[in-house]
């Protein structure tokens, strides 16, 4: 295992802490599903970002440099236990974990309380994920109380308690080369899964049958999980943004909207494709599909270092708003020009979500979308943050037409979203998910060949 990226991240974080301070981060707990069965275990993203360690019951303690005191990264984890390993699988144990993952020291997690009183004595600040983990919050109180009880001996507890989350979020919003490589592979696997689902689609299949094709392709290629519950939405279901029942039989002539991506080595991908189950777009479907595709291209063009995050959404909205007027979803005599539509947000009944979100270890990844408080003029909204090289975001415009008075019936129950993942790169962007076809010609040719 290449431990260098994790060690470099720990060093960067410790360099931002007050000298001599301590940071404590715990991984996620195991969660019971029912009876004696747990949900599949998934580590905490921030903990994994700094460690690469995927076992439960683990805590990372970072001690920042102060004077002659060198920085330290200490892991507390489960001890080796041959009997439990028969049932549950390998445990590294402190000694092997220390060597394999490049920590300065490692101890049994059961010894955490005993060590923390000494580690927190006379340090200027304690950093943690404030109010995010009730179990860890309770432990922190015990440790601080233990140090405070030594006050008559001249030992002081940390006078400052600080949230480490903003520091980690800002680090995570820009992906290094190691992360970008994993995300590119995740995008390739997810693209192949969408191709498989398109090839398997035909009138009469159930949504869950296409979901099964996706999950098979994810796992077949080494992805550990779906990054989120797949959406396989046909007909009217395509107008439900977070639909995931996936239990309807798909009828001839309907569109299928699939929003699905795998998680590979802790990193998510996020792709949406919309296609006709019979392999041929009809005229109303095609007109709206081409509009969403054009909006996505406008958003792609806006992804440039130095442009703002919100400018990507603005570019997509302008194309969609003009298209809604052109096809008759919005009537000019009621809504006016495209500028009027945008100013009055008349497009919202048909496009009610944002065009992008950060992507990384979490599908909606860490990182602020606006600049910190104080950057804006008094009484104004915080400005959208500029894009930087290495940021990863989705581009996902859509149109969703529910039956309503005044809405042309030919468009009823058509929901279309097209979503790809991009890295902000010098002069523009790098596409992570180009392996999934998305033009009308590409989709129809693929499905014709499968038939």
TrEMBL record:
Cofactor(s) required for function per UniProt: Mn(2+)
UniProt entry keywords in alphabetical sequence: Aminopeptidase, Hydrolase, Manganese, Metal-binding, Metalloprotease, Protease
Aminopeptidase P N-terminal domain location, by residue? 1-137
Q: Which domain of life is it from?
A: Bacteria
Which Gene Ontology terms cover its molecular function?
aminopeptidase activity
Enzyme class, spelled out: hydrolase
Presence of keyword Protease? yes
Q: Which reaction does it catalyse?
A: Release of any N-terminal amino acid, including proline, that is linked to proline, even from a dipeptide or tripeptide
UniProt-listed Enzyme Commission number(s): 3.4.11.9
Which family is it part of? Belongs to the peptidase M24B family.
* Record-given protein name: Xaa-Pro aminopeptidase
Q: Which organism is it from?
A: [Empedobacter] haloabium
The upper taxonomy is: Bacteria, Pseudomonadati, Pseudomonadota, Betaproteobacteria, Burkholderiales
